[in-house]
Amino acid sequence: MQVQWRATERWSLTTDHGVLMTRFSAGDLDRNQVTKNVEDSWRCLFLLIADTRKRHAGIVLRAPRVRIAEYHLCVLTTLFIATSLDGYIAGPDDDLSWQFTDNDYGFDEFYQSVDTLIMGRGTYDVVRGMGRWPYSGKRTLVVTRSEKLDITTADTAYFNGSLVELEKMLKEQGVKRSWLVGGGELVKGYLEGKLVEEVVVSVHPVLLGKGVPLFPGGFPQTSLKLLDAEAFDSGLVQLRYSVKS
Question: What is the pTM assigned to this prediction?
Answer without folding.
Answer: 0.70
